[in-house]
Design brief:
This protein has helices at residues 13-27, 43-53, 63-72, 84-96, 111-119, 129-146, 155-165, 176-180, 198-201, 206-209, 219-227, 229-242, 280-288, 323-330, 334-350, 356-369, 378-395, and strands spanning 3-8, 32-39, 57-60, 77-80, 100-103, 123-126, 150-152, 181-188, 249-253, 259-265, 270-274, 311-312. The chain is α/β, with parallel strands linked by helices. Strands 4-3-2-1-5-6-7 form a seven-stranded parallel sheet, sandwiched between helices. The structure holds magnesium ion.
């Protein structure tokens, strides 16, 4: 069946790369149609994307931007407001026979449309890690009930998925990964500040923290990389995706960003996945899974693989990393609290209102101050998210 894709977050870094991969696959003669685009407010960019890919339905969270797009392009169906992306998913499912959703909206606002896609049984290409961090039990449980397949696009998780799939049939049955895998290690580049003297790091500026050494990404994830909160989010994401307990998931510093994950099976075999640090690789792997189409960019030359380095994470440098295991062992809405506090703190840091060292402190303080509750409904998760935002805002 040809892929009919809804792209949520089409103007962000992952969204733009996804469209590049779609164009590349269509050039190869594979049929990937884009049936819907969702973005925040960059309506001119979205308009251009609809022209290039023949898209008829769009969601813009910003109503003013949506009004401008309607005026410029009366032939488009345009949804607006906070529920726009969810409405787009529903319309494209009902009217365009959508098969797949690329969930590339950053942050908690990606949760509702992704959850709706899971309810509708669509195949989900997941790069919005915050969705699983905040509501992993809900999203995975919904997908299991509807039969929605979740294909990870976050590079480490795409790597782990491929490693696990070498020995277990995918999609993985409940408990199957835990029964065979002894340890999953996600690699971390160390972010922009990995070589900065520890004493200076807590006062680093946004400009310094945004210069990522190996990956070109959006601002939120680049700051999360500098604080290692990104790896904390990814440990929680892996916990939900693969059904592994927290103690089986770790992280290793790997400055070259060539090895993305290591999966150690019970019998002592460890499978690693290696690829250039290029998000188009995991994006394409999900779009063509389980097949491997010709790469969209330069392929890793194994002869260049000298000098790969690995080191343990220094928790003194990255205190935010330890919060992942705390959130997993506390459970319930703990992940939602961590995620919301981090979103607020990162935004405040980017606006110059707090120092880098405060981000992880604020997240920890919010997790101390707001008690976790069962995360069994969207309402419970949204309530925890709101409480954590308020508590984090006070601390900012
Ligand atoms: Mg990642």
């Amino acid at each position: 069946m040809p892929t009919r894709l809804i792209l949520l977050g089409s103007t962000g870094s992952i969204g733009v790369s996804t469209l590049e991969v779609v164009a590349h696959l269509n050039q190869l003669g594979r049929s990937v149609a884009v049936v819907g685009l969702a973005a925040n407010g960059a309506w001119e960019k979205v308009f251009l994307q609809t022209q290039l890919f023949g898209v008829k339905r769009v969601a813009l969270a910003d109503p003013a931007a949506a009004a401008q797009l309607r005026q410029a392009a009366p032939h488009l169906e345009v949804f607006d407001g906070p529920g726009a992306a969810t409405q787009l998913v529903e319309a494209c499912h009902a009217q365009d026979g959508a098969t797949d959703v690329a969930a590339a909206i950053v942050g908690f606002s990606g949760l509702r449309p992704t959850l709706r896609a899971a309810q509708l049984g669509l195949r989900i290409h997941l790069s919005n890690k915050e969705t699983l961090v905040a509501a992993g039990a809900l999203v995975m449980g919904t997908a299991q009930q509807s039969g929605a397949v979740i294909l990870p696009v976050d590079s480490e998780h795409a790597a782990a998925f491929q490693g696990i799939a070498c020995r277990l049939p995918a999609p993985f049955a409940k408990g199957a990964v835990d029964a065979q895998v002894a340890k999953l290690v996600l690699t971390a580049s160390g972010g922009a500040l990995r070589d900065m003297p520890l004493a200076d790091m807590k006062n680093a500026t946004a400009k310094e923290a945004l210069c990522h050494p190996t990956w070109k990404m959006g601002q939120k994830v680049t700051i999360d990389s500098a604080t290692m909160l990104n790896k904390a989010l990814e440990v929680i994401e892996a916990h939900w995706l693969f059904g592994l307990p927290g103690e089986k998931i770790g992280a290793l510093l790997h400055p070259q960003s060539i090895v993305h994950a290591l999966v150690s099976f019970n019998d002592g075999a460890t499978l690693a996945q290696l690829a250039s640090p290029d998000m188009r690789v995991p994006i394409q792997a999900a779009l063509t899974w389980p097949e491997a189409a010709p790469a969209p960019g330069p392929v890793l030359d194994p002869l260049t693989l000298t000098g790969l380095e690995f080191a343990p994470l220094c928790l003194e440098r990255y205190p935010g990393f330890a919060l992942a295991h705390r959130a997993i062992s506390t459970g319930g809405t703990s992940g939602a609290l961590l995620n919301a506090a981090n979103e607020v703190a990162v935004e405040a840091f980017l606006a110059g209102r707090i120092k880098l060292g405060r981000i992880a402190q604020i997240v920890a303080e919010v997790m101390d101050a707001v008690p976790a509750a069962p995360a069994d409904s969207l309402e419970a998760v949204a309530a925890a998210d709101a409480k954590a935002r308020e508590a984090a805002g006070q601390r900012v």
